[in-house]
Amino acid sequence: MGGGKFPPMRIFAILCLALAVALPAATNVAGAQQRYSSPVAVPMDRGERIDELFSELRRARNEAAAQRVANRIWREWFRSGSASIDLLMQRADQAMKARRFHAALDLLDQVVTIAPNYPEGWNRRATVHFMMNDYSKSMADIERTLRLEPRHFGALAGMAQILKNTGRKQMALDAYMRVLEVYPMMRNAQSEVGELADELAGQGI
User: Which of 14, 145, 31 is CA-nearest to residue 70?
Assistant: First the structure.
């Protein structure tokens, strides 16, 4: 295809964002509550935590504050609940960074087979396909990601980039607008919306 190649770090910024921050183990909330029990403290389940974080993300007043909340969302998304899946994901990430894309795909194929309801497995495989310029397979995995987590701003941004790269500017604009609905302070999406809106307005003149 005619779409230009993008440096790996830019692609990670679009689809992975804060991987280095997201991978460390999260704090054990239940254990902490056992040590510091409170008669009124009721721990939220994972879905409630993510919902609350998305509310914070929409309320964030600046890019830095929004990025901190987004990093917390990524940490929740990376929690597969399975040590074996976590290990496969870490090995896939190492392979991606080394540009051993076929090895990464082999590992991620295992992830989505073992855990088909784990959105980040599909999103990670979409990233590898994107880096290999296989947009059709990347888009298919993005759609699986969004079926499981419609607010996945990384997957939405990846979809928007693919649509832009393949000349579907109106659809790309719509996808970036979806990103901003859940992550209003994402600077890249803001810039792309402005650029695409200007281009489409110019074509209409």
Answer: 14
Q: Which amino acid is it at 22?
A: A
Rounded to whole angstroms, the Cα distance separating 182 from 107 reads 30
The Cα–Cα gap between 65 and 59 comes to: 10
126 class by beta-carbon count within 10 Å (0-12 exposed, 13-18 middle, 19+ buried): buried
pLDDT at residue 45, rounded to an integer: 85
Query: What is the block-wise mean pLDDT of the chain (205 residues), using blocks of 10 residues?
Result: 42 43 36 35 73 97 97 94 95 97 98 97 98 98 98 98 97 98 97 96 74
| Pairwise CA distance, residues 170 & 160, whole Å | 10
Q: Which pTM value belongs to this model?
A: 0.78
Say if residues 108 and 125 touch (Cβ distance below 8 Å).
yes
pLDDT at 204: 64
Which two tokens mark 75?
A: 């940490």
Domains in the chain, start-ordered, CATH in brackets?
8-25+46-204 (1.25.40.10)
- For residues 189 and 183, the answer to whether their CB atoms sit within 8 Å is yes
